[in-house]
Amino acid sequence: MTVYSFTQILERCARLGVSQKQLCRVADVNEGTLSRAKKAEREPTNRIRRRLSAAIDDIAAERGVVFVDEGQETRQ
């Protein structure tokens, strides 16, 4: 599994149209943790990034979206 940077996680969320609330629910991460990281403009811990990355991949797979390159995606 790829662990994305916080910036990549936020970009993928935006491209998928996933809300912060939905991402946190799927990742089992407290929404406040994500809000604080965004506000402080710093990377969350590796554990949190792993959970968020896995959640993004799960949501993308559920929707049939495959990220092939930065800024591009395809639907299956």
TrEMBL record:
Protein's name in the database: Uncharacterized protein
GO-annotated molecular function: DNA binding
